[in-house]
Specification:
2 copies of one chain form a homodimer.
Chain A lengths: L3 E7 L5 H12 L3 E2 L1 H11 L3 H7 L4 H7 L9 H19 L2 E4 L3 H4 L5 E8 L2 H12 L6 H20 L11 E4 H4 L1 H11 L1
Parallel strand pairs in A: 1-3, 1-4, 2-3, 4-5
Helix pairs in contact in A: 1-10, 2-5
Chain lengths: ~190, ~190
């Protein structure tokens, strides 16, 4: 019998991570987010920051990820394969919430998933990231656009699915319009 | 004070129309779908079938819709402007559910909208259209792909938004995975 897992994909600044934690608390099940990065770091030997940045690739990432494999696996391949294994192990342990890292795709044949996407308007997300992470020299809208592009590229590369398309998820919620609490309520209720 | 309106966009075969009716019944408010076509038909003089086909354009539609306007409005322009007026009038009368016809876009500044998108997998939709509309010579998957393309083109032309993107809606639901009843419950609850 497959475990019931909630996977949460989210736009940067949408509060999807917070929604994940709220859902897990409501249901009394674990939420894996930072723990996931920690575990991948332990098993791969790469630093947590490096792994976190992996899902928001920069120009160098693209050069590497499309590189010739004749010399063996790339760093990205190594991290991706460990990430897949860690996600599958966590899902096998019992019901849980997993935030980010293409868990919906990784678990598509492994667990009984409720797949969620959390998004919000540029305006609401800009408000949120300034509140959460403070002002930076770069405008929040610019930071968001950069992050969006990178997450979309990462997602597309590994899953071959278009980021943010409704069809990829069982439920998509606008956390800016509906509020985090309501989003968490609906997800917990659907579980 | 703006009226609270639920707009439902839906993929063909997803059961979005049925969900709309269920929501309206739960909330005790009217649901406009066939009535909308009827009203546009009365005010424009065009037949109901013709109006219904308008939102699923064929090759001829594209020729006309991009045509030179020096001779006046095209048929499409006339129907679109009447459609906008009818939708705005209905929304001004009181709370309601409106299915299809880009109502979310038309009412973006007019009403306090809960914007919904209902979708389902190709497999579930194929099952549903055969059950609802019977077998045809053309395979259900082919019929669905045709309809999808046409609705996407219509939506894009009038709203300049990409059909099926999660960001365009406050909530998107996979009716195939979640079931129509559950979709209706969630929407009614969010209202």
């Amino acid at each position: 019998m497959k475990n019931r897992v909630i996977t949460i994909s989210r736009e940067f600044g949408s509060g999807g991570r917070t929604v994940g934690k709220m859902v897990a608390q409501k249901l009394g099940i674990p939420c894996y987010d930072a723990e996931l990065i920690q575990k991948i770091s332990e098993e791969s030997g790469y630093a947590k920051d490096f792994i976190e940045e992996e899902s928001e690739p920069n120009a160098g990432w693209f050069t590497q990820v499309f590189a010739d494999r004749s010399m063996g696996m790339t760093q990205q391949d190594v991290i991706w394969s460990i990430q897949c294994r860690v996600i599958k192990e966590l899902a096998a342990q019992g019901p849980c919430v997993i935030v980010g890292r293409c868990a919906d795709y990784v678990l598509r044949d492994e667990a009984d998933c409720l797949t969620v996407f959390i998004h919000a308007s540029m305006e609401k997300r800009a408000e949120r990231i300034v509140k959460e992470y403070g002002e930076r020299e770069e405008k929040p809208e610019r930071r968001l656009k950069e992050k969006d592009k990178r997450r979309a590229a990462y997602h597309r590369f590994y899953t071959d699915m278009k980021w943010g398309r409704a069809n990829n998820y069982q439920i998509c919620l606008d956390s800016g319009a509906l509020g985090l609490e309501k989003c968490a309520d609906i997800i917990a209720q659907l579980y």
